[in-house]
Structure formats: C-alpha cells, structure tokens
Amino acid sequence: MEKVRLGIVGVGNISQLNVPGYLEHPGCDVVALCDAKVERARELAKTWGVPKVYGSLDDLLADDGIDAVEILTPTFLHAEHVVAAARAGKHVSCQKPIANSVEEARRMVRACADAGVTFRVTENCCYYPPLERARQLVADGAIGTPTVIRVKTVVGHTESEFQASVDPEGYIWRFDERSPGGHLFDDVMHKYAMAMWLVGEDVTSVQAVVRKGRLFFEAPMVALLEYARHDLLGIMEVEHAPGMFIESDWFGADEFFEIQGTDGFVWVTRLSGRLHDLPPLVLRSGRETRVESDLDDRYEVSFARAAAGFVDGLLSGTQPDLSPTAALKTLQLAFAVYLASNEHRPVDPRSIEGAVSPPWWPKKPAELIEDVMALGLMPEEMPPVDEGSPFAGLT
Fold first, then answer.
1. 225 φ, ψ to 5°?
2. Cα 287 from Cα 136, distance rounded (Å)
3. Mean pLDDT in the chain?
4. Which of 152, 78, 18, 13 is nearest to 327 (CA)?
5. What is the per-residue pLDDT across 124-133, written as a single tens digit (0 to 9) for each?
6. Pairing label, strands 119-122, 253-261
7. For the chain, which domains are there?
8. Is the pTM value of this prediction over 0.90?
C-alpha cells in the first residue's frame, strides 16, 4: 500500500478533532464521508475537499476505492460497524470506548483478526506529546521505579468556540440506556487507558467509590488501583466543579497526571484545559528539577498525531496504539470501577466479561430536569426536546 484511501464514518462533533490529521497527512487520501445526516456530510465534504458522500455504511463499505475506515459513530454502534468493516476487508480505526460491553469488544477483535485487517482504537492521549514524553521518561528510568500514579480530572465550564458550537443532539445517547454509563464511561475512558499505558502495567484489582452527580456526571469518584507489580499503586480522582472556569480551546476540563518513583516524579499538568500556570511537563529526578516547556501541548495536536499513527501503521505494517487488547483492558477497568463501588469490594477487571452500570443509570427525565434547574442551565442550552430525548417534558 503506497497511500491509504480512507473513509470517515460519522461526522458529528468529534470529527472536528479527528479528521483534520487525516486530511493533512501526505500518505492519506480521505476519499469519502458517511453519515445518516447526508446534508451535513455534504457540507463538510465541500469544506474538506472530500469527493464522495454516502448515506449508509453498506454503500461506503462496498466501495473498492476505500482501504480503511475511521469510525466516529456513537459507542453503541461500534460493534456492528467494526464487524461490518472487517468483513468488507477494510482496516479499522474506531473511536473510544471500544464498545458497550466486553462481549462486543471481543467479537470486534475476532472479526478483525479473522479478516486479517488492522484494528486500532483511537486514543489521542497516546499521541499527546507531554504524555508521550512522560511515558518515555518513566521507561528510561528517569524517576527510578514507579510506585504511585495519580490521575485527576475536574470538569468545570469554559467559553471555547468549540464548546459553544457543539451539536447537542450528539450527546443525547450518552444520557440514556444506549450507554452503560455517563462521564466515567465516556471521557474518563481516556484516563483509564493512561493509568496503564503510562507505566506499562496492567491493573489487577480496583476499589472505588462513585457518587451520583448532576446530569451524566458520576462524581466525585475516587478509585484505588493495584497493579500486577505489587509495589505499584494508582489513584484516580474525578470531580465536577460547574462553578469553576477552566480556560480551554476545547472542553471545559482539566487533567493532571503524576507518576511518583523511587528517585523522583514526573508531572503532566494539562490535557484539554489550561488550569495551571505551569509548564506542560515537570520532572524531578534525584536532586534535579527540570521543566520541559517546549513540548507541543495543544490538545488538537494529539488527534492529528493519532491520525498519523494509524496511517503510518498501515503503511509500515505495524500495530498502532491503542491496540485492541489494550482497549479491551481499558473497558474492563471502567466497568471494574462501577462494580467495585456498587458492591463495596475489590474487583479484578480481568473477571468482567459483560457490562456494568451504576445502580442509578440511566437517570429518569425528572432527575435530569432537576439537575438542569439546579445547575441554572437555560432550556436553550439543552439538547432538543422530543419524544426520544431523556429531557422530554422540559419546558
């Protein structure tokens, strides 16, 4: 393969981050867009210079001029779409989370293996320069032997152009039974992946407390992770702070990663937001503290590099991150956090083969309306209210 001919399946909100990297890559031609909202796909095809538009996945997969697909559809459609793409002989990159259940994820992995096509799950954090640098420093022994990894996420609000222009309809399915969980399943999946990827170790036991927050937030949440290496532990925290402003060009969230070792620590001080007036990476090694301020810490760069990772992997015949095996383990970890909190006991993520949800999930429309009122949100800021909306009844 001299050049990857790519089809994009799904042109919703996240496509604004995922697609530009493919358009810019010299080894990739984006030849088709596919979406049930054909008019939106046509508009974007004109903007991006993409020659073909399809209204159905079957039509796109029947196109012999397409080598690979990037699947950006809602999570509950991933299994169906990935299996269909594999059977059509297309290489596959699929937006995280990999699937709604472990069984679905395993079926997707098998289908791609049987078809002999490359399968990766799009995890932009693997390609975020400060996180990538932190992982390399840990692997090189810059902080000695890692002993504790801490990942903190706080969601506030921001005034970014992207946040103001998102299509609310793209979020409705995240509030109902089409998703097994809320924010912890959706956004925090990135951080679950990093909890293992940064240190190169699997999680073998989880203890957690998950509280019911407003809207689809499950916060506060605190989880204790035990790894295969007995002297390595992890701490994960998630908070919702709706009254706190977070400067960001994208989402109103802030992430902070700390890996403590026997000889020092490394901090990655941001991802989507810019809450802290600190360099993107701080390293303490022995007696020396140094900062790395020249790393490209723009959030969108991680998506462009993730696109390049898929294309380069196909051209070189190598497996790009995030491998389907790692994505499956990440899914199990997300479910283990729910189960550990639900049953107040340690849970081995490897024991989970189905799906797990919080006991209150999904919320009833009346609860969502109460949340909207409590947060002081105006009706025009909420998803469209129709029969299929969990906000039906909001006036």
1. -110, 135
2. 20
3. 95
4. 78
5. 999 999 999 9
6. unpaired
7. 4-122 (3.40.50.720), 126-301+331-351 (3.30.360.10)
8. yes
